Amino acid sequence: MKLGAPRISAVTSVTKGLRFRLMLSYVLFFTVLLVTMGFIFRETIRTLLEKRMSKVIDEEWGSVKGYLKIERGQAMWMYDSADPEEAAIVEGLRRSYYILTTLDGKKVLEVSNSYRTIGVETPQEITQLLSQPQPQWRIRTDSRDQKVMVRSGTMVDSGQTYFLAIGRSLDEDQELPDTFARYYFAFLPVLIAISGLLGWYTAGKALTPVIELAKTAQDVSSSNLNVSIPTRGAGDELDHLIVTFNNMVERLRNGIEQIRQFSTDVSHELRTPLTAIRGQLEVALFTAETTENYKDAMVNALQDVERLSQIVRALLMLSQAESGQLPLLRQAVNLSALTLDIVDQFQIPAEEAQVSLVSDIPPECLVEGDRVQLERLLYNLLSNAIKYTGAGGRVKASVTTHDDYVELLVEDNGQGIPAEYLPHIFDRFYRVPGHNDPEKGLGLGLSFVAWIVKAHGGTIEVQSEAGKGSKFIVHLPKASAPAVTEVA
Ligand code: ADP
To answer: Does domain 237-322 have CATH number 2.130.10.10?
Structure first.
């Protein structure tokens, strides 16, 4: 069996890779864009040519009106036959698409052969066309399926109105957009292939940091967390991803370091009483002569066993608490009454330690919390304050209400904590070096305090100076409902 995390093989098939998919979107986008542009260009050329053609027809319309006269129902072209240019113009007009009929369309006065190929309109069609006030523009098809642009309207001569239509073949004009489209669409696959290459290159360049990130992530293991990918300085999403990844690795590194430290501390903490027990039992076994000697050894061993089980119990509870298995029973708790109660309980130990324990507490101060855990918090803070103050010292507990939180202060004028040790005092098993603690605490009390404050959504701050004393400032959220009255 092969152990270890499976390594992600370099993207198994190219077509499944992000680079390929990005390139495909690129190609798709360009294909749609270029095809649409091709059609738009072709239609624009066609429209422009049609516009130009309608202008030419408009000019011819004016010429026809200038040269054409109708006398006794006969169409007469009036021009200077001696002028070859004029003759050619008139000849051209008569030969191109041209028809002249009476207003009702029943009698055709003159029609060119070209016009016959697109079909002479019936009288009904002519009446219909003339019913519109504007001159009519139509695209008609001749017998050879070629398109012809026709303008029709009325012409007045000698007080009589006639129907006149002239046209021009769109054949040549139609060829241009089609030729453009043919060449353009023939060249299109080359353009698409170039866009594909460009897309492949751009996607590859954009994905390089991601691939590097994946490679580095593959090398990350619990024993090798000293990795950090340099950012490219572009300040973009990829740089953000790299920074996030580096931060994650750093958090993992810190977490694993803490776990390592914790395991070392636990084994050290458990080893000391275990070694002591073993020593005591061995000494008793080899040197004890009287029952009294055995009894002494066993009492000492029992004390160490008690300390061992205290450590194990506290650790179990702390890990349950921190993993969320110790749910808080939230209710409105009168912190004033609770603090007074704990202060009272500590009066005798304080007297024994020759420490004066005072309090400054208003009659009622409601917080939202778990009574048992709040008791534990007060207990730990007050026992520490008395423990680390010493004979002749003074400890004060006070509670004050603020707008949206309640402040609990536990201050003493005892040994204090040097600034360099302050950041560690909430760590498990941490004891400030050089502190005089006759009870030899477990170093877990403040870890509990920190968890309780965090679980209540509060904050804790410590102000301390070596030799001058310490001040623990706890902020807890105020209760919204009234306190639950406890039945004694
Ligand atoms: P311990 O069981 O050793 O008291 P804690 O977690 O409660 O463990 O406290 C951690 C360390 O912080 C203590 O060992 C002590 O050195 C220091 N400390 C805590 N409270 C005070 C205080 N009021 N004055 C001075 N030092 C303190």
So the answer is: no
